[in-house]
Amino acid sequence: MDPIVGAVSQLLAHARGEESASVFGLVRTAERIRQRPLTVQESDTLAPGTFGLWRNCADHDEILFSPWVAAPERTVAHELGHILLGHPGMPVDEAVRRTLPAEWHDVAGFMLRQCGQNSTGDDHLRRLERDAEGFASELCGRIAGAGRARSARIRSLLNEAL
Ligand SMILES: [Zn+2]
To answer: Whole-angstrom Cα distance, residue 82 to residue 135?
Structure first.
């Protein structure tokens, strides 16, 4: 099975009650599977143009999303993808790019290279982003599909009742 589809299936298989009805519900599922606290919150501290961010802290994980994001569920699903696909926490240079003002990027990147911390190549980063996007599409598609199936079932029950 495709590892991305597999990760989505595994998440949905562990969902309890209404958790599988939304990405925010499935955050609770992910928390249980990983046995590690995972918080989600809106944050206006992200760099301009940044939709969301996964912060891998010592004893918990945080997903932050910008207040202007049109589809927070989709952004959270993308970050959840990074977490559940076992991607490394955000590389330091990426964190710098997303949290420091643009005029600082060159000098911060230079300093990080001096420290030997800029080891992940751009191709690798692009592949991780593509996989997280794939996860978000698959997950949001499955949630929407299940919602349609639920309402179709309710409609047919209503039709029978009428
Ligand atoms: Zn990403």
So the answer is: 8
Centre of ligand 1 to C-alpha 129, Å, is 5
> Class assignment of domain 3-90+116-161?
mainly alpha
Based on its alpha-carbon atoms, the radius of gyration of the chain, rounded to whole angstroms, reads: 18
Q: Comparing C-alpha atoms, which of 162, 141, 132, 158 is closest to residue 54?
A: 132
Q: Looking at residue 101, what is its pLDDT? A: 65
CA of 50 to the centre of ligand 1 (A): 10
CA 146 – CA 24 distance, rounded (Å): 15
Distance 132 CA to ligand 1 centre (A): 6
- The residues spanned by each domain of the chain are 3-90+116-161
Residue ranges in the chain modelled with pLDDT below 70: 90-120
Q: How far apart are CA 91 and CA 126, in angstroms?
A: 13
For residue 78, report the distance from its CA to the centre of ligand 1, in Å: 6
What the block records as the tokens of 55 is 């912060």
